[in-house]
Specification:
single chain, alpha/beta, Rossmann fold, Dehydroquinate synthase-like, alpha domain, 2 domains, six-stranded parallel β-sheet, binds 5,6-dihydroxy-NADP, binds zinc ion
Length: about 375
């Protein structure tokens, strides 16, 4: 097991009716900016609950943080924070709203432009404190430091790291209104988060392995229930907690991580506008196949423990595991081939060109270069 430091300070407030607790958790003496996406919260009753809980607080609303939050929009919120002397931020919505808010919070306390801050972490100079009401289980953003920010002008999409949310409120009832496609993408995103932290080497941490397999097995079990009935509170609660546990550091203690699938997926989103979770299910089977030698033992362990694959040669077991994984993604109603999404050779060539130019090396062994990225993409056409 590798050395590690673990500290996750986010207070997680989970369950029915918990939005009302905002009144207890928010600072009464601070000016608050409440950030929203495009309006889903007005259709599902979340906005009314937030407004009721915020009675008596000094707050401003900022609307319009779009999916794959754009720095061009976030800069406007930074201006509001600086002009109005905002001291605390509350994001209400999906991962994009919260990710955008993480950047707003950091960019509001420095001179540097928000995109400069994304490109150059050394410009980070602290943050305004922020919290969330998360209405879409997927990113784990509610309990991690990460944010993924897009630039409309340059067509780029990069990660940015701030501190953790002070608190996050998760009421599974808020997910009842999610479009089924977002649910499918959220289940897929959660699945792949765990895989990025799991599908590397064997015997590094037996505890983390079991923990990761536990989250994935839970997803496999709950996915059909969630897809059959989105008003099933217990199923949605299980899915929601799985998403948080998939990317809050709990399955990452002392183990190497991969993240190649995400890095390639971000480029597909940046260049072709494909939704995040959808990009991941296209890419992951390709990474598993192309990296089968390096990851083979772990793929076999995964296949045995999660899909019950116990027969055949090592190569046959790897093939069967990749097939079962892809079948699970298809059972969510998602496409698993680039051609199905209309992503063609031109986009793939640009992705390969970007990785070549940047000299990026992906994966747990930092050995996935642009040539291997090209192989992955070719395999997924
Ligand atoms: O904008 P509104 O109107 O609120 O609608 C949203 C949006 O259109 C809607 N939605 C959210 N909650 C809803 C709802 N509709 C009905 N009922 C609800 N309860 O769903 C649409 C998608 O929302 P978005 O926030 O974009 O989705 P998600 O949470 O999947 O976030 C995706 C973004 O997160 C990044 C992705 O790259 C992408 O930019 N990620 C962030 C991570 C992190 N912070 O750690 C890690 C992930 O790997 C991921 O990269
Ligand atoms: Zn993700």
């Amino acid at each position: 097991m590798n050395n590690f430091v673990f500290q996750n300070p986010t207070k997680l407030i989970f369950g029915k009716g918990q939005i009302a607790r905002l009144a207890k958790e928010l600072p009464r003496d601070k000016k608050i900016l409440v950030t929203f996406g495009g309006g889903s919260v007005k259709k599902n009753g979340v906005y009314e609950q937030v407004v009721a809980a915020l009675e008596g607080f000094d707050y401003i609303e900022f609307w319009g943080i779009e999916p794959n939050p754009k720095v061009e929009t976030l800069r406007k919120a930074v201006d509001v924070c600086k002009r109005e002397g905002v001291e605390f931020l509350l994001a209400v919505g999906g991962g994009s709203t919260l990710d955008g808010t993480k950047l707003i919070a950091a960019a509001s306390v420095v001179e540097a432009d928000a995109w400069e801050l994304v490109l150059n972490p050394s410009l980070y100079g602290g943050t305004l404190p922020f919290a969330s009401i998360m209405t879409l289980p997927a990113t784990g953003s509610e309990m991690n430091r990460g944010a993924v920010i897009s630039n409309l002008t340059t067509g780029e999409k990069y990660s940015f790291y701030n501190t953790y949310p002070v608190f996050s409120i998760l009421d599974p009832e808020t997910t009842f209104s999610l479009p089924p496609f977002q649910v499918a993408c959220g289940l897929a995103d959660t699945f792949v988060h765990v895989m990025e932290q799991y599908l590397t080497i064997t015997d590094c941490s037996p505890l983390m392995d079991r923990w990761a397999e536990g989250v994935v097995q839970t997803l496999v079990e709950v996915a059909p229930k969630v897809r059959a009935n989105q008003q099933d509170y217990d199923a949605m609660a299980t899915y929601m907690l799985s998403a948080t546990m998939g990317l809050n550091g709990f399955v990452a203690m002392g183990v190497p991580q991969d993240w190649a699938t995400h890095m390639i997926g971000h480029e597909i989103t940046a260049l072709a506008g494909i939704t995040h979770g959808q990009t991941l299910v296209v890419v992951l089977p390709g990474v598993m196949d192309v990296m089968r030698e390096q990851k083979g033992d772990k793929i076999v362990q995964f296949g045995q423990r999660v899909w019950g694959i116990t027969e055949g040669t090592k190569d046959e077991r790897i093939d069967a595991t990749i097939r079962s994984t892809e079948e699970f993604f298809r059972s969510l109603g998602l496409a698993t081939r680039l051609s199905e999404l209309g992503v063609g050779e031109d986009v793939c060539a640009e992705i390969v060109r970007r990785f070549r130019e940047r000299g990026t090396l992906l994966g747990e062994a930092s050995n996935i270069d642009y040539r291997l990225v090209e192989q992955v993409l070719r395999q997924r056409m």
